[in-house]
Design brief:
heterodimer, A: 315 residues, mainly alpha, 15 helices, 77% helix, globular, B: 280 residues, 12 helices, 75% helix
């Protein structure tokens, strides 16, 4: 818990320090996004005073933390609205995308891992191993581009991008179907990438269980192979999956950033991408704060959950 | 187990082949590329032809030449980031392990905090603010990734420190630098190589990823930038352009990363001290 708070503090402080440590100052950066405007020294000083940048760094830092505590992440230069509002609107799309990708990946990856690990060295096992090892190393943006090309451009089964049809005028049910239709491809790409990790983990867990005593005893009792595989071996092998699921969320954030960019999906990743392109620094930093703090928080949750699930860790 | 060894050897061979291909293309880029990758040498959006093997992009740059020259930043970042990460990791990790006490505790605490920081978001913020370029990317990756190798090096140092020959060297008055150079570095070799391969793979992905997100110097040539340019193009999918614009660059990044990963997996039985000690 202490480590968690320390990490969050470091992240928030980095967010404060980095822009000030880098070449150029925020005023120049802000004006650069609007290059048609040239300003004289007086106006610059006024702007600096308006944003509190003429104050000592310590004062600025306290004000920054105070603003954060009240949920104030500054104002977007490009959209001219509070970054917090902007993020809130985008966050649910990312949650939907990453959440559904994760659920599919868990199902597919774990099932494949249980099968492959139980029959280690079989042809199925070797093929799955090589295939998923390869998939895991394809860059997420390359996989996403390829998926668009095949399923949206060539086959035309699914929409090219976006999260919903603009100005959609159907009922609620039709609207949900429309959103789901747009979700299939980006979530599918994420699922493929995540599932490789789950597969490898579950397979490794199953392999360590293969010679375990309780399995031998179960076999001696005449339990069926299926029962041993799922109720005995898989159950124990499942434990590390909990921790890794949360740890993989940082990869999920990464993946969703690229996938959203390719699919023009209106989530946080796309927002960050657009903000970088427009040099909209408040938004870039706001995305950074939300991304990083949520990743760190989920890691903490996983740790707490793990100690509850495994009595051996609690002691 | 014989069979398993053969399989990893095959993987190692395939990986070395892929990495070698990228390396040769990168080194020989001036000879292989028919045009300057930044020069405007053709019409806008030409399809592949004898003059332009992979056609041209929206401003008329030769895409084949961009593909060839794009190998360079990937290689440079991979080598630079791996070297920097390992240098920091070995020096910090080994010092913490050898000195012990307060230094060790402070370093471990710092490592714990740094491992908690999410890499990509941080990378994006820094890359957005810093002047873009290969050097920036290398420094960011090196600074972000050293804790992982430092942790491994430290724990290995702790066991090495107890070995007779190391204790003898310190007992006869060998200083920190001497013990590190003479005894620890050779013993840490396999770990360092394994770590370097791992970092190189991540670095290639990140370099391409940052360029793809538009966070690298747009006047240079790299696979990620080619993709960035293609995907911000309106109506990219209306024609067949993507076949010669998107696929080769995406494939090149994949080949480089896969090659490095295969080398890593293939070398594992030789590098991992635990696997080596196991009777075969």
């Amino acid at each position: 818990m202490g480590g968690y708070l320390l990490t969050v503090w470091v992240l928030l402080t980095l967010n404060f320090v980095l822009p000030r440590a880098m070449p150029g100052d925020p005023i120049t950066a802000m004006l650069a996004s609007n290059e048609a405007v040239t300003v004289d020294a007086d106006t610059r000083a006024e702007l600096a005073a308006y944003y509190g940048m003429d104050q000592p760094v310590a004062v600025q830092y306290v004000r920054y933390l105070d603003g954060l505590a009240r949920g104030d992440l500054g104002v977007s230069v490009r959209y001219r609205m509070p970054v917090t509002e902007l993020l809130a609107g985008r966050l649910r799309w990312t949650a939907l995308l990453v959440g559904s990708g994760m659920v599919v990946a868990l199902g597919v990856g774990l099932a494949a891992g249980v099968h492959a690990g139980w029959r280690r060295g079989s042809r199925l096992d070797r093929r799955l191993l090589v295939a998923l090892l390869a998939v895991r190393n394809v860059p997420p943006f390359a996989l996403a581009s390829l998926a668009v090309l095949v399923f949206a451009v060539k086959l035309g089964w699914l929409p090219l991008g976006g999260a919903a049809t603009p100005f959609f005028t159907g009922g609620v049910a039709a609207g949900a179907a429309d959103v789901a239709h747009h979700l299939v491809l980006p979530a599918g790409v994420l699922a493929v990438q995540f599932s490789a990790g789950y597969f490898l983990l579950m397979r490794a867990g199953m392999v360590t269980q293969l010679g375990a005593d309780h399995l031998l005893l179960g076999r001696a009792k005449g339990l069926s192979d299926r029962r041993l595989q799922y109720r005995y071996a898989a159950r124990n092998a499942l434990l590390p999956v909990v921790t890794v699921t949360a740890m993989h969320l940082s990869f999920a954030v990464t993946g969703s950033l690229f996938v959203e960019t390719v699919f023009a999906y209106p989530g946080m990743g796309r927002l960050a991408f657009d903000a970088v392109g427009a040099r909209d620094y408040p938004v870039v930093q706001g995305c950074f704060v939300v991304f990083s703090v949520s990743v760190v928080t989920l890691n903490l949750v996983a740790e707490l959950l793990y100690t509850r699930l495994d009595p051996r860790v609690r002691a | 187990m014989r069979r398993r060894r053969d399989q990893t050897d095959r993987l190692l061979g395939a990986g070395a082949g892929l990495v070698g291909l990228v390396a040769v293309v990168g080194v020989l880029a001036p000879l292989l590329a028919p045009y300057d990758p930044q020069a405007l040498v053709g019409d806008s959006l030409d399809p592949p032809s004898g003059r332009h093997l992979l056609g041209t992009n929206d401003v008329g740059q030769d895409l084949f030449s961009q593909l060839v020259w794009g190998a360079r930043p990937s290689l440079l970042v991979a080598i630079g980031a791996a070297a920097l990460t390992l240098a920091l990791g070995v020096v910090i990790g080994a010092s913490a392990g050898l000195v012990g006490g307060v230094v060790d505790r402070v370093v471990m605490r710092a490592i714990d905090v740094m491992l908690g920081l999410p890499l990509l978001p941080l990378l994006i913020v820094v890359a957005a603010l810093a002047p873009p370029g290969v050097v920036t990317t290398v420094i960011i990756i090196g600074v972000m990734m050293w804790p992982m190798s430092a942790r491994v090096v430290r724990s290995e140092t702790l066991t090495l420190r107890q070995r007779g020959y190391v204790r003898m060297a310190t007992g006869f008055g060998g200083g920190l630098g001497y013990v590190l150079r003479r005894h620890l570095l050779p013993a840490l070799g396999p770990i360092v190589v394994a770590g370097a391969i791992n970092v190189a793979g991540v670095a290639v992905l990140l370099e391409a990823g940052l360029a793809f997100l538009g966070l690298s110097d747009p006047t240079r040539t790299s696979w990620g930038l080619t993709l960035n340019r293609a995907l911000t193009q309106q109506g990219l999918y209306l024609s067949n352009q993507w076949v010669w614009w998107v696929l080769p660059a995406a494939g090149a990044v994949t080949v480089a990363v896969l090659g490095i990963t295969f080398v890593g997996v293939g070398l594992e039985p030789r590098l991992n001290p635990r696997a080596r000690r196991e009777p075969k």
